[in-house]
């Protein structure tokens, strides 16, 4: 009986042994955290040790990349200034911005105020503008020579702007009768002379009708209709007789909205009654913007 009671000691009332509670498990988490902190401090300490020589090489390469002049430091020389070989100067944003601004202005061919000048125009853009201007000017010369051979010298006016070559047909009695959109016999010859020079071009052609400020008294209600019809008749002649591809051409009428000359003189009224054939330049906008400046730059 006594032996049975002795074997029963150490058990709970339910007959199961009590589980021993481990109160030192927090040491594992604590040691892990301390290990991570020690590793972090080691990394921070290693990062704080900068190799001055390598840093100087990096600074020099960055300065050269941004166009800043390279500076050579003589470390063995003796002078009146204290030793500053260990001091490192890094280019600031104020040093970098002017260099980048000049590069951007040169690439765009524009100054800060938006005006192109010979000093800031990129060489490649200027060369492209000169080549395009030469091509358009050569086209105008060949057309003028063809008209001269037919006794029509001076029948057309040529000018080059940022859009391309503008061939002006002043709509006096040579091209159209008063307040009429019917092409005269002379104007048909002129348009037929133009066509062979326009057909081979890859450029798009815009035929634009214009009028002066004098109200029309013909069948056309306004100068919009008159200018549009005149442009359309010129375009039809180019396409139907001259074989100009219709997909490359368009006709539009501006009425009196875009006068070339003041409408307060007889010359201005006559000059604003016109049809312009515009050979649109296919060059990028930055090249086209330089076209009007080419003659000035060539003179300079």
Automatic annotation (TrEMBL):
Pfam families: MotB_plug (PF13677), OmpA (PF00691). InterPro entries: Bact_OuterMem_StrucFunc, MotB-like_N_dom, OmpA-like, OmpA-like_sf. PROSITE patterns: OMPA_2. It is a single-pass membrane protein. Residues 1-23 are annotated as: Disordered. Residues 1-12 have a biased composition (Basic residues). PANTHER family: LIPOPROTEIN YIAD-RELATED, STATOR ELEMENT OF FLAGELLAR MOTOR COMPLEX. This is Chemotaxis protein MotB. It comes from Sanguibacter gelidistatuariae.
């Amino acid at each position: 009986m006594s032996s049975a009671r002795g074997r029963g000691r150490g058990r709970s009332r339910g007959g199961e042994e009590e589980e021993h509670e481990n109160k030192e498990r927090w040491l594992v988490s604590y040691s892990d955290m301390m290990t991570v902190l020690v590793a972090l401090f080691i990394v921070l300490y290693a990062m704080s040790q900068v190799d001055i020589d390598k840093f100087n090489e990096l600074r020099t390469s960055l300065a050269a990349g941004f166009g800043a002049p390279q500076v050579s430091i003589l470390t063995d020389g003796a002078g009146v200034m204290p030793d500053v070989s260990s001091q490192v100067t890094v280019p600031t944003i104020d040093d970098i911005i002017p260099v980048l601004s000049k590069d951007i202005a040169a690439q765009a061919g524009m100054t800060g105020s938006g005006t192109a000048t010979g000093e800031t125009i990129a060489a490649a853009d200027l060369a492209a503008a000169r080549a395009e201007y030469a091509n358009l000017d050569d086209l105008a010369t060949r057309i003028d020579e063809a008209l001269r051979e037919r006794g029509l010298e001076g029948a057309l006016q040529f000018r080059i702007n940022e859009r391309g070559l503008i061939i002006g047909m002043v709509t006096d009695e040579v091209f159209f009768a008063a307040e009429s959109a019917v092409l005269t016999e002379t104007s048909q010859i002129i348009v037929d002379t133009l066509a062979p020079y326009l057909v081979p071009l890859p450029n798009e052609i815009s035929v634009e009708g214009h009028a002066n400020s004098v109200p029309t008294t013909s069948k056309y209600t306004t100068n919009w209709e008159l200018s549009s019809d005149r442009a359309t008749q010129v375009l039809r002649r180019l396409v139907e007789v001259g074989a100009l591809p219709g997909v490359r051409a368009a006709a539009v009428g501006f009425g009196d909205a875009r006068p070339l000359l003041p409408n307060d003189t007889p010359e201005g009224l006559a000059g604003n009654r016109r049809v312009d054939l515009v050979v649109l330049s296919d060059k990028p906008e930055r090249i086209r913007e330089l076209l009007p400046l080419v003659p000035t730059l060539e003179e300079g």
